[in-house]
Amino acid sequence: MFSSISEIMCIDCAGKEVSIRGWVHRTRSGGKIVFSTIRDHTGIIQVTTKKGNLPDEQFDNALKMLVESSVEITGIVKEDVRSPGGYELLVSNFNVLAFAEPYPIQKDQSEEWLREKRHLWIRSRRMMAILKIRSTLTGAIHDFFRELGYYEFTPPIFTPNACEGGSTLFEVKYYEQKVYLTQTWQLYAEAMIFSLEKIYDVSPTFRSEKSKTSRHLTEFWMAEMEAAWLTYHDVIKIAKDELKFIIRRVLERNRPDLELLEVNTAKLEAMLDKEWPTITYTEALKLLKEKSGMDVVWGKDLRTAEEEEIMKHFDTPVAVTEYPKEVMAFYKPTKEGGDAPGPVAKCFDMLAPDGGLEIVGGSERDTDINALIKALEAEGENVANYDWYLDLRRYGSVVHSGYGLGVERVLQWMLGLENIKDAIPFPRTMTRVTP
Known about the structure:
Blueprint: H1 5-8, E1 17-29, E2 33-40, E3 43-50, H2 56-64, E4 70-79, E5 87-98, H3 111-116, H4 118-121, H5 125-147, E6 151-152, E7 158-159, E8 171-174, E9 177-181, H6 186-196, E10 198-206, E11 219-228, H7 232-253, H8 255-260, H9 265-272, E12 278-280, H10 281-292, H11 304-310, E13 318-321, E14 334-335, E15 344-345, E16 347-351, E17 358-364, H12 369-378, H13 387-394, E18 400-406, H14 407-415
Parallel strand pairs: 3-5, 6-10, 12-13
Antiparallel strand pairs: 1-2, 1-4, 2-3, 4-5, 7-9, 8-9, 10-11, 11-18, 13-16, 14-15, 16-17, 17-18
């Protein structure tokens, strides 16, 4: 029976014979002794193989094996403060299942080269830690919404319509017609809330953005929610609660991974007990002018530089609401009244501290069919293509709202990753579709 490495790294196992299996992480030899570090998905342990303690053929195999060879090992657990984790394994049986060829990944290789070898780089301890936390994050999203009584709804990936603007659509040949990869589940989610009322999903999203920045992907995962009877203020509160739930869950379950990645967990913990502010777009521009000396013309969408500057003044995420209607998607309704110098939409973005990443975006959805038609025409869309969507306003429409949370964006922010490409196993960008 095989044990995981984490299971045998304890005082109760000291002196006991155990069996493990995994891959060679590091290895070096000194004639009659081989020191190896073996990894599995739970951790690493030092393994000491001495000539004379096992058959000669097994020792010879241990001597000649290279990094990433797969092995099965039996031995006695021993405390050793010099070893990773404080324990080592003294080998009595060493079985090499597959000898690896010379491993191409060495120290001091460029990030871009490592992405070229991503199918191998995901074996690194750093990538393993990131991917474990990603798994915890997506699991937390499911738990959060299910505990609130939401239903999971999985939308189609092929769609006949744009939702976030035609310039970022991926066109796909679909038999004899033309369709697109989904930009968001939203239009279908709006249909579903008239059935299930409260829904969520975690699914892939595609945006053909001409961007090569450290915060953009062309294929990414969006965790979205939509609910009947809720205003945009209602879903802002839900978004804040969801993010706190995610942070708390990751802190509970991934301490070793966070430590390996050198994440400032104290900063994340401090956020859990604070109120997260909500400010309007107009207030954000005032803050930029008064505290940062940046004079941004009202009506202009916020760029990365301005979002970064705003978040220099906060130590928690901040919801920025009521952006100018003119720069918003067609489905976001106009907010009446207020003291903004122009029409604003009932919408919000959630910005994160330490970089100003936009990690959540949402809004109320316009229930005025005439306003929707006018907005679609203004964007140059063929209104006939949206007739099924307009049906949702013809048959019992009610106030409803939703948002999308970028899984990779949240992971990038929480872990302090320099590039969003490290927040997903196999990144897809303008210039990368392999491996």
